[in-house]
Design a protein that fits this description.
By secondary structure, the protein is mainly alpha-helical. It is built from eight helices and five strands; from the N terminus they run αααββαααβββαα.
Length: about 260
């Protein structure tokens, strides 16, 4: 993506800045969906692009729901508020889930700043209405935190309610935690329901298949992604003997040179 595209954020088409409450809200939702995709569905690609050995990097989300890790704008002042600078530097110095949560918080701040940069010329009542519409959606941090808490809750108990054989808490269980990201990070206008226990958007990290209660799943203790047991050649019996499961991708990574 060229610089003009990145800075203008005009990926939704037309190239003109949003001017109405509805247009600004649409721009906000598109950018938010892009950030959510980077931190969830595309998290492995995002993580890989945030190399600490590179220069200061930023996470950009665009109105067309595309995301990009790139260097910050060089012009001063910038055409739009810029996202947090240097997110890559903290990547290897923090627990992965904590780092993603930190990126999420800074991304929420950036999303609001862009929206209210566009809203500066609106009336007070229109700005209030815009904020209300934005506030009806969960923040990026709330989505990431809910996913993380769901995984931690499920990892703390590996209980078969019927009292039969129990699987290791950190590895295999029938139901992976319910993520809060809709398909392609799109949300319905009704907003976010924290009590939604739907597992339908849990995807296998190998084949991309959607969760089914009829199949055995296992979670990686390193990247926290979920896999069909058959895709990674792990059976329930084999999972019993595993103290810490690493998926094929994490197992093949070499330790970082000091």
């Amino acid at each position: 993506m060229d610089a003009s595209y990145r800075r203008s954020g005009a990926g939704g088409g037309g190239g003109s800045a949003p001017r109405t409450v509805e247009d600004i809200y649409k721009d906000y939702r598109g950018r938010r969906s892009a950030i959510l995709r980077a931190l969830t569905n595309d998290v492995e690609e995002f993580y890989g692009q945030c190399d600490p050995d590179k220069e200061n990097l930023c996470l950009y989300g665009y109105a067309n729901e595309a995301w990009e890790v790139a260097l910050p704008a060089e012009e001063v002042p910038t055409e739009l508020p810029e996202p947090a600078l240097g997110i890559n530097f903290a990547r290897d110095g923090m627990k992965r889930s904590d780092w993603l949560a930190l990126v999420a918080v800074h991304s929420d701040s950036w999303l609001v700043s862009v929206a209210f940069y566009y809203a500066a010329r609106l009336t007070r009542s229109d700005r209030k209405r815009l904020f209300g519409m934005m506030n009806d959606l969960a923040t990026v941090y709330e989505v990431i935190s809910e996913m993380r808490q769901s995984k931690e809750r499920d990892r703390s108990v590996g209980i078969d309610n019927s009292g039969r054989h129990k699987l290791p808490a950190k590895h295999a269980r029938e139901a992976p935690p319910p993520p809060r990201v809709e398909s392609n990070a799109r949300e319905a206008d009704e907003g976010y329901d924290e009590d939604d226990g739907d597992h339908s958007e849990t995807l296998c990290g190998t084949c991309g298949g959607i969760y089914s209660a009829e199949e055995f799943w296992i979670g990686c203790d390193v990247c926290e992604r979920w896999y069909h047991g058959k895709c990674v050649k792990i059976t329930p019996a084999k999972a019993d003997s595993i103290k810490q499961y690493k998926c094929p991708s994490c197992s093949s990574k070499r330790p970082r040179q000091q």
